[in-house]
């Protein structure tokens, strides 16, 4: 997009000289107006570029937020891993201890398993929510980008029509 903007910037920078060479006297006013229109268009292009940069910064901020969410989910998963390790250790102790101790350890292992399942469920929900947020953000950015490109195309077409019209007028005036 920057390359396209630079192309049009170079094209528009050359237009005032072409118009100035095409006519004199009364066309000086037309040339000044064309230069003013070109300058206004360049400002619009610069504004559009600034908005694109702001959109990129917003996307980067969203990525940082999602990374923080992923870190939280990983911390929860780490806790679940510790719970699994604790479950394994409880089973090992239960195998060595007496039957009564084995029964108590089995109850503790079931509780631990339930907590681990809850932690896994929380992790899955967090990932699902993060994916939904990322997709919503990306689709919004895409819509704004397409809208901006359409507006830019409309401005370019309008300018081309204006320049062609001016060229026709200059050609008729020179005859």
Structural key phrases:
175 residues; mainly alpha
How would you characterize this protein structure?
With 175 residues, this protein is mainly α. It has one domain. Helices cover 95% and strands 0% of the residues. The chain is built from 3 helices and no strands. It has helices spanning 2-22, 27-96, 99-174. Helix 1 (2-22) packs antiparallel against helix 2. The protein is rod-shaped, with a radius of gyration of 33 Å. The model has no long low-confidence stretch (mean pLDDT 83).
Structure summarized in a few sentences:
By secondary structure, the protein is mainly α. The protein has helices at residues 2-22, 27-96, 99-174.
> How would you classify the helix and strand content by structural class?
mainly alpha
Bin the strand percentage.
under 5%
The largest pleated sheet is described as: none
Q: Helix-strand pattern, N to C?
A: HHH
What is the percent of helical residues?
A: over 70%
* Spatial separation of the terminal alpha carbons: 40 Å
| Rg result | 33 Å
Task: Indicate the low-confidence ranges by residue numbers.
Answer: none
* Average pLDDT score: 83
Number of helices: 3
> What is the total domain count?
1
Topology:
Blueprint: H1 2-22, H2 27-96, H3 99-174
Helix pairs in contact: 1-2, 2-3
């Amino acid at each position: 997009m920057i390359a396209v903007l630079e192309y049009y910037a170079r094209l528009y920078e050359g237009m005032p000289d072409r118009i100035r060479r095409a006519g004199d006297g009364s066309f000086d006013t037309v040339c000044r107006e064309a230069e003013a229109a070109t300058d206004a268009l360049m400002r619009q292009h610069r504004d559009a570029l600034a908005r694109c940069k702001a959109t990129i910064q917003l996307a980067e901020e969203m990525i940082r937020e999602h990374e923080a969410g992923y870190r939280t989910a990983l911390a929860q998963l780490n806790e679940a891993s510790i719970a699994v390790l604790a479950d394994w250790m409880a089973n090992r102790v239960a195998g060595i201890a007496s039957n009564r101790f084995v029964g108590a350890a089995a109850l503790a292992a079931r509780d631990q398993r339930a907590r681990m399942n809850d932690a896994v469920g929380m992790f899955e929900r967090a990932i699902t929510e993060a994916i939904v947020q990322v997709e919503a953000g990306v689709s919004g950015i895409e819509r704004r980008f397409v809208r901006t490109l359409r507006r830019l195309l409309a401005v370019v077409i309008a300018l081309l029509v204006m320049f062609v019209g001016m060229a026709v007028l200059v050609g008729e005036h020179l005859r």
